[in-house]
Amino acid sequence: MIELPTAPTPPPPEKGRSLGRLAWERFRRNPRGMTGLAFVLLMAAIAFFSPLLANRQPIVCRYQGQWYFPAMVEVIQNIPGATWIVQKSPPFSQVTFNAKRALTAADFALWPPIPFDPRETTVNTLQPPSREHWLGTDQNGRDIAARVIYGTIVSIQVGLVSMGIATGIGIFLGALAGYYQGWTDILISRLIEIVQCFPTFFLILSILAWLEPSIINVMIVIGLTSWTSIARYTRGEFLRLQNQEFVLATRALGCGSFRIMFIHILPNSIAPVLVTVTFGIASAILAEAGLSWLGFGVQQPDPSWGNILRDAYEYLRSAPHMVYPPCAAIFLAVLCYNLVGDALRDAIDPRIA
Amino acid sequence: MLSYTIRRILLALPTLFGITLVTFLVINLAPGDPASVQADQVMDPRVSIRVYEQLREYYGLDKPLLVRYGDWLKRIVTLDFGNSMTPDSRKVTVKIMERLPATLSLAVLSLGIGFALAIPIGLLSGARRNGWFDTVSSTILYALYAIPSYVMAIPLILWISIGLDLLPFQGMKSDNYEQLTTMGKAADLAKHYVLITFCFTYGALAFQSRFVRQNLLEVFRQEYILTARAKGVGETTVVLKHAFRNTLIPLVTLFGITFPQILGGSVILEVMFNWPGIGRLFFESILQRDYPTLMALSFITAFLVLLGTLLADLLYAVVDPRVRYD
Questions:
Q1: Range of the domain at A69
Q2: For chain B, N or C: smaller number of CB within 10 Å?
Q3: What is the C-alpha to C-alpha distance for residues A203 and B136, in angstroms, rounded to an integer?
Q4: Closest chain A C-alpha to B271 CA, distance in angstroms
């Protein structure tokens, strides 16, 4: 029997890959971008698990015949809104309770690598790095390593919350301007131009000076002043997409304006906005550290990279070791968000690369 | 060209009006005014309330907001920014003029040095794209660019001013400045300028040289470069004579935009170096709630940025006539 040559089986149809998937594949091949992303994630992890890294209470301990998990409880309480789920049980919940003194050598206790709270003062002031205090202590004898670790929380929060506010305002105004055009566009474009004329730091300081100095206010004010470039990019994208067929199609289907704007056009225009937001996070972190350095941001005794740097500046001659940790932290955070932003831009628009 | 100029200026007018409005509202709508800051220093509460009322009347803060805005607008048209609302109540213009040279000289120095270095670096790295110079310089510049200026400043102060005791870092002059000879004075001033100028310059340097490089690569794609090469012009001449001149256009516009921004000053750097410039004046005025000075500074810098953008646009239209029919 003659075997008929069978037609080669056609390869299975290639699965369509979305723009986002393509961008992610290009991003993954960028070592600098991936390094940046890895560090950003590490920073988030440090912020979230900070109570396990530096704490004046143990992670696990057996005290007077009972098991306690004080540092673990603090981690769970880091989840927004989780304060009501678990609470520390006494005596660890009492402010005056000193676990280091109460626990004897006979009690089992697993301590965090840095057994100090960022606000905890000791008698060892302005000490250079030692086995006890890895990065030394400041003028109040507070452990700098603990302060830098808890400062990470502030930076992450500032980056996300302030850019969240800025993205909301920027996308909303940019979308309105790009979609409706005409008078709406003229008004919003003027507004963008006006706000952009002011040096951002002047604007932030002017508003902040009148408010109670607090981290919440810093985040809101940075958010309120840094939406302009996001609005400009969104507007540009909306103008570009306005005449595409899919917009016409949704209109023909009878979608309302807001549905067309935010469900159909926005997802297609999000890419360049995302790049701006990433760079924006870096500058928000930088702005917060600067404000805290000037005394307008996070207030003592709460730690922030900016106010640690301020302490370092005040004691430059007697305690030079205080300079490096906050400088390195700010530098790395800003660098990594910028690396991610660069890689994101190259991944989204491969023509430029 | 004339019609374009007029159109562009007319477009800038509403923006200018918006700038005055934002300046006035941001500073005047905030809780806490200069009168309350000064009255708080009086211990006796009954006296302090009376002082507060008197101060409010004295500064005109008791009038309605709209009236105050109108008064302020009328005055700034004649470049009169009023008197400070601090106990010394000096003229705002005098205060600003005192501080201007420190910041202006820094801006000029930093831009001058920046461009003087950025142009050759940009040209060299653009001319041999991905060559060793391009790789090395762009790596170093990227690293420098990534270091925020005030994060760079403190270790620099620590190493150079304190560790090596080479350069001073507080203010513009040493304490014994008056007793120095003319040469000594010049040397003293120069020493005070080194660190802060460096901190002002290095970040922009990366940006500027990248800008030059990018423009050069853009120009290289043009046909007239191909023509020049085809007729046998040497590479150096192609870069310097044919390409470089055409990269100058966007560079000038960059200059127009950067200058006012530097003038707006880096508040943090000036406070850090105790530099008697505009940025520190702004910071001090914030602490004193000195409305008139704050409004003057915000308005002037925003106005200069607007002017810079306007000039850059006009210049672009002069060089590239296609822009006018936009």
A1: 57-111
A2: C
A3: 38
A4: 8
